[in-house]
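Lab meeting notes turned into a lecture example. A postdoc, R.K., suggested we walk through two folding results consecutively so the class can see how the record format repeats. The first protein's sequence and structure tokens come next.
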Amino acid sequence: MTLLLGMGVANLVGGALLFGVTKLSRFFTGPYEGWLIWPSFFLLPLIVGMVAAWFYRRLNRGLGITFLDALWIALVGLAGAAIFLWEGIVCLVIVFPAFYVLVLTGLLLGRIWFRPDYSRLQLSIFPLLVLLTVTDALYSSTQRVVVTDEVLIHATPDKVWPHVLAFPEIPDRPDYWIFRLGLPYPTQTTNGGNFVGADRQCMFSDGIVIRERVAEFVPREKLTFDIVEQPTHPEAYGHITLHRGQFVLRDNGNGTTTLFGSSWYTLHVRPSWYFDLWTHDMTRAVHLRVMNHVRRLAEDDAGNL
């Protein structure tokens, strides 16, 4: 009973704090927003773990059992986020590793904090939490990031270029595991014209359409486009801003072409270093799905001559 009570109260406290921070954030905008919102990513799970540790303080919980306690608390907390905050499964999967580690850290700190013979260690926890909070608040999450991938195509640039401009629907099922969990994946691209300023559309699963506008156009060498309308899918909305995409073709002089694909984006979640690990990997999956499709089409054209 104590275990269930501790787990429930800890997550209720975390939920209440999250609700309060969300409401209070309406009064903080611009550079001050990070001082309130983003430290909560670290502090709330820590608090959840420490509240649970207070309930567990009279139980003889070994270190191994504490790891299991943190797992159940984290799962209950994220289930609550899915039910009450309508968070998507992809977001929950991304957050879970960090959330679990922070809840576990809160439990372990609580084991120390609530032992009466560790008064000096208790005092050392506060400077640690303050340092963690200030460091995270000061760390900028507005840096523009670029991800670039390359694919070798056994066809000349003149065979590759038409499929870079536009390609029909990709028939293959996605093999990237996060796509299978529900993250939208690219299916088709349309081209409104072969000139700077032309409109393009990159279509994704779930009916998502990203509207683009050509910014650079060098036939058989380079295509650069700006994103003019952000996706509204709940797994991405508000978390990331897409800025630009680019394809560059390099003629290798031996009948092959190296195709480079790049994307520029800005994350709006912290800690940036953690979430960018996931975003970088997902961006690569988008690149490679499109570029490998272009490779197959171009090599088929070259083989039909």
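The second example is placed directly after the first for contrast:
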Amino acid sequence: MRVVIAGAGNVGRSIARELIHNGHSVLLVDRDPHAMKTESVPEADWLLADACELDSLKEARLETADVSIAATGDDKVNLVHSLLAKTEFGIPRTVGRVNHPRNEWLFTEKWGVDIMVSTPRLMSALVEEAVTVGDLVRLFTFKKGRTNLVEMTLPHESPCVGRRVDSLNLPGDGVLVAIVRDGVARAPENAAAVEGGDELLFIVSPEYEQELTELLAPRD
């Protein structure tokens, strides 16, 4: 898979290393000469250019990319790059980094963003996930599919404790995608039973989140 990353700062370089480690081809684009630290990710291709200019994106052969990631520290740049990637170059999947929570509402399909990644929101969700039991925590939103990745640490008093996965009768389009037990993630086999203290990860539409909560951790 070919990935173009707009922004060669710490975030962009870290993403590039991970993608390259997983076997993908990566191009880092940045207009700041000081960001051209090619020795930090020698396996990547580098381009000194403005990721918001059409000529620069043509030079980057953006139309051949499978994914475009806008990872700069400027929300305006991330939005413009995502919009150009989607509307001018037809990129199948765009990912936009949100630096300031007040701008989250802009990172939608109208601006060419398929997936929004908000660092403040993600950090907040991870903190909640670490300290809450019996509450549904939204970890990630898949904008294009209008579904969420959510997590709940199952209370020991939940009526679902001891029940088989295939008997949970999840509401709507809810799907149990993983069970984390004793720090180890495992696939949710139909015949397996859920236990108190399990971290359960689901993909579910927002309209069914409340029903899912009531099923797993009903309030008296």
